[in-house]
Amino acid sequence: MTSDFYIETINGPIVVAIKLSSDLKNSRVREKLEIERRYWRNRNIKWKIVTENEINLPKARSIEWLSQAKKLEDFGVPSDMQASCILYFEKRYTCFMVLDNLFKELEAEFNLDPGVGLNIYKHLAYWKRIEFDAEAFAGYIG
Fold it and tell me: What phi and psi, each to the nearest 5 degrees, are found at residue 80?
């Protein structure tokens, strides 16, 4: 058996089991969840079940989309160039500008492949270094 998520918080760890609400009707699934609950209770760790009914799908999709750019190396941005790219972006970024223009400027300045500017934006938003407006990117997120 495994647990889906072990999360460290400022209030201590919490373990989260993710299940479809329809799966909770299955006695074997409930039995396994009870074993998991007792396991974590015996270790004094909070445990809970989350179903699709508790998940904000637009928010989850946004987080998933941003997390694709967690590591800039995945997009061909060498580690020795990342700080310069990020500084360039942050110095020029305002929430009132046309971002496509900034992406293209950044890509030209550092000779980056098309699309890397957007991934730098996603990277910064993922790490909460800039504000993220999910509505502005609704067409990208899907």
Answer: -75, -10
Q: Give the residue numbers spanning the domain of 118.
A: 57-141
What is the spatial distance between Cα 127 and Cα 93, in angstroms, rounded to a whole number?
A: 16
| pTM for the model | 0.68
Same domain for 68 and 27 = no
How many domains in the chain? 2
Q: Each residue of 4-38: pLDDT tens digit? A: 999 998 999 999 999 999 999 999 999 999 999 99
CA distance 77 to 122: 14
Is residue 99 within 8 A of residue 42, CB to CB? The reply is: no
State the chain's maximal CA–CA distance in angstroms.
59
For 36-84, what is each residue's pLDDT tens digit?
999 999 999 999 999 999 988 888 888 889 999 999 999 999 999 999 9
Q: In this structure, are 78 and 111 located in the same domain?
A: yes
Query: Which stretches of 5-48 are DSSP H helices?
Result: 27-41
CB 58 within 8 A of CB 134: yes
